[in-house]
Protein: Aminoacrylate peracid reductase RutC
Organism: Pseudomonas fluorescens
Amino acid sequence: MSIQRQLTNERMSQIVIHSGTVYLAGQVGDDMSAGIEQQTREALANIERLLDLAGTDKSRLLSVTIYLKDIDTHFAGMNAVWDTWLPRGVAPARATVESKLCEPEILVELSVVAALP
């Protein structure tokens, strides 16, 4: 089976498609000076854009791993945005962990696996 890679650089691909499954690189917000809600909204918008490029959408999410800089401080704010973004009845498998992220300004990063239609 073939593997398709999109938006690739020397280090990673933003999208990898294999056997009807879409894998996205970890997505963060664009404005690193923003709070958790805005960073979450921006990261989710990036996910939607990449899923669209791959030929699928958020209703086909299989698994999401959410990395938070500080789970005690940011869990509720991230969930408030997540809950309004995710359509009813399509919740993926999900894990949320606290993690030291690659830049100190990043408050949230999401890694997504989705199915193609």
